[in-house]
Specification:
It contains 8 helices and 15 strands. The chain has 2 domains: 135 residues, Rossmann fold; 187 residues, Dihydrodipicolinate Reductase, domain 2 (2-Layer Sandwich), CATH 3.30.360.10. With 334 residues, it is α/β, with parallel strands linked by helices. The N and C termini lie close together (6 Å). The site of adenosine-2'-5'-diphosphate has 18 residues, from α1 and α4.
Length: 334
């Protein structure tokens, strides 16, 4: 493996911090690591492999002699630097939604469509966190049995809205327990001990953007223009792991529960947690900090027993839903 010079844009954010830790854990072959953020963070120190690394302000010169740039600072920042990154001969791996649906930008989950990464033109997009976590549970079964339709309901953590949202949830929870007033600034509705429809933009068809992303991105990743998805995405007061209820309807007969369990258990990045006897199934607390997505509640859909099954998945939004998947993409390039 050849060593690469890597830059992380958004290094001080919730995903950025995880980029650094995942690169350490996966022994990513780094010749030089550049940590970039906004002007506010310039001079801050973060550790990489036990050494202090000083955060720099991102500028147009930041990408000279950089091979791979991992971006997680939001769509406007990714858009702003995309051409400069490409002109520097550097490959951008972008966690934002800025380029995901562009035809010449691969959208990659390395366990599912790694070969797509070869067709990049300077940018590879990391899919939306809910899409990644859903497909980690769906794909092992989909690969063998054609799926016609997915009904998805998500229970999404605060981390998807960044570090400030996690901090707001912590403070709002404390205030609620102490009977003190609390003014939400990041989330649009009271978050502690509550839940609400996903805070992404509401569209004309009555779906929100997050829900439509799961549909469009799935078709692109699977190269399947026939699969249908209807999603309901909800924010729940959980810090960092998303949970998702999935109903899969098949074109032909549905596979047996045993077959699904075996396919899932043999898939890299998935851990089956399906203990009916002890009523123990995937939980966001157990998925937090884990690289694997936990899948359980594997059962026939009694309303359509010949054709459909149900699953429940929990995955760490900051890891497989973001940083881990992006670093795995970067590893495809070395
Ligand atoms: P900073 O900490 O300096 O504001 P999160 O997703 O957790 O909200 O984090 C967002 C990340 O994006 C942070 O690292 C933040 O840096 C970074 N960021 C925000 N604005 C800019 C900018 N103009 N240029 C580069 N990075 C930015």
């Amino acid at each position: 493996m050849s060593e690469k010079s890597v830059a992380i844009v958004g290094a001080t954010g919730a995903v950025g911090i995880e980029f650094i830790q995942v690169m350490e854990k996966l022994n990513f072959p780094v010749s030089k690591l550049k940590l970039l953020a906004s002007k506010r963070s310039a001079g801050k120190k973060l550790k990489f492999r036990g050494e202090d690394c000083i955060v720099e302000e991102t500028s147009h010169d930041s990408f000279k002699n950089v091979d791979i740039a991992l971006f997680s600072a939001g769509s406007p920042i990714s858009r702003h630097y995309a051409d400069i990154v490409k002109e520097s001969g550097c490959v951008m791996i972008d966690n934002s939604s800025a380029f995901r649906m562009e035809p010449d930008v691969p959208l990659v989950i390395p366990e599912i469509n790694p070969e797509d990464a070869n067709n990049h033109h300077g940018i590879i997009s990391n899919p939306n966190c809910s899409t990644i976590i859903m497909l980690m549970a769906v794909y092992p079964i989909y690969k063998k049995y054609r799926v016609k339709r997915i009904v998805l309901s998500t229970y999404q953590a605060a981390s998807g809205a960044g570090w400030e949202a996690m901090e707001e949830l912590r403070k709002a929870s404390l205030a609620h327990l102490n009977n003190e007033p609390f003014e939400q600034k990041i989330m649009p509705h009271p978050y502690a001990f509550n839940l609400f429809s996903h805070n992404s933009k509401m569209l004309e068809n009555g779906y929100n953007e997050e829900e439509m992303k799961t549909f469009k991105e799935t078709r692109k990743i699977l190269h399947d223009s026939t699969i249908n998805i209807t999603a309901t995405c909800v924010r729940v007061p959980v810090f960092r792991a998303h949970s998702e209820s999935i109903n899969l309807e098949f074109v032909e007969m549905a596979p047996s529960v045993e077959e699904c369990r075996t396919l899932l258990a043999n898939f890299p990045g998935v851990q089956v947690v399906d203990d009916r006897q002890n009523n123990t199934f995937p939980m966001p607390l157990d998925a937090s900090g884990k690289y694997e997505c936990l899948v359980g509640r594997i059962r026939k859909d009694e309303s359509l027993p010949e054709k459909a099954i149900n699953l429940f998945v929990c995955g760490d939004q900051l890891l497989k839903g973001a940083a881990l998947n992006a670093v795995q993409i970067a590893l495809l390039l070395v």
